[in-house]
Amino acid sequence: MYSEPPPRKHSCQFTMATHFSKLPIVDLGGLQQTELSADTIDNLSRQLYNVFSTTGFAYLVNTPLSFTHEDIFGLTRELFTLPTNEKMRLAKKSFLPGHRNTYRGYFPVQPHLASDNLKEGFEIGNPAASYSAMAEGQKINLSEPNVWPSTSNFNGQEKLEQLYGELQAFASQLLSLLAVSLGKDTGYFAPWLDDSLSTLRLLHYPPSARNEQEHNPDNIKLSCTPHTDSGILTLLTQDSTGGLEVLNAAGDWVSAPYVPNSIVVNIGDLMARVSGGRFTATMHRVRRPSPKSAPEEEEEGEVGRFSVPFFFEPGEACVVVPVDGDAESVLYGEHVRKKMATFVEFQEDSGYDTGTTE
Ligand SMILES: O=C(O)CCC(=O)C(=O)O
Ligand SMILES: [Fe+2]
């Protein structure tokens, strides 16, 4: 679903992004037509082809989502301000072995595993998912029900499930346009989405400590190390904190600041591969949020950056065949399991002090 360690500068299995200095904006107002005209399909698929074969990243505006950024970050803040023991009740089995959820749920900040990957997260999949049988030796069940805080503590379940549904529908529309841009019919990739493993991930990056920043004014600190996403595409809602950076072909990190009402989109490894290298899965990273500007603000508690990526993914059993037919096909479940082995949020962390009684 997520990422991999940084390759050497300028080396990539696929097409590199070009020498961009800012990310393009694509206006998706045309998607509001009840039935898309051939002209709209042609126009939007060309624009998407252009951005995904150059920057691999873009801002989407006038999207079909009914949720505003305030709606999304209201829910996100509500979730992360729950008491630690309430959040740890949702922790994945790798953090609390008594729990059944292995793939969906909460992961805490793990400062002693990686100081440049400081984030806590909460992940949900398809609200209708149920447990699938796991092969022997497998520790993670890619298909399992979501876990939720008790309704007395958190009101957002229904809204987050609705957001998941809207993002899945929106990403499916984009996938139809990508099919057209690659010379296929709009429905070409539809079978990929049976039992789709898409993940909605709420993220919170705590700010760095005040003294840490003062002692190292020029030192770049990261909250998320350079990586490419591994699925079809990612739809990211970011708050106005800033910190997201995207690597161009010159090896420069280009900042992707907040654009009001936009969704950031980027291509994942799977789609780059399926496109035969026409699309690029561009490296990106997140800088650690700065400490608050005034000490008196600290009384309000730590804030930092919030972001909500939606990783759009095929089903576990999907055999993904590149459009040109000359590259090797891949079973999506195997692809995602291989990638996961390298991510900090999937590493065992028995040393975590949960503050819970479990
Ligand atoms: O928080 C962000 O802006 C980016 C997160 C990200 O790249 C990821 O989780 O794969
Ligand atoms: Fe990412």
From TrEMBL:
GO terms for MF: metal ion binding; oxidoreductase activity
Signal sequence, start to end: none
InterPro entries: DIOX_N, IPNS-like_FE2OG_OXY, IPNS-like_sf, Iron_ascorbate_oxido_reductase, Oxoglu/Fe-dep_dioxygenase_dom
Domain of life: Eukaryota
Pfam families: 2OG-FeII_Oxy, DIOX_N
Residue ranges constituting the Fe2OG dioxygenase domain according to the UniProt record: 195-314
GO biological process: small molecule biosynthetic process
Keyword set, alphabetical order: Iron, Metal-binding, Oxidoreductase
Record has Flavoprotein as a keyword: no
Annotated family: Belongs to the iron/ascorbate-dependent oxidoreductase family.
Protein name: Fe2OG dioxygenase domain-containing protein
Organism: Periconia digitata
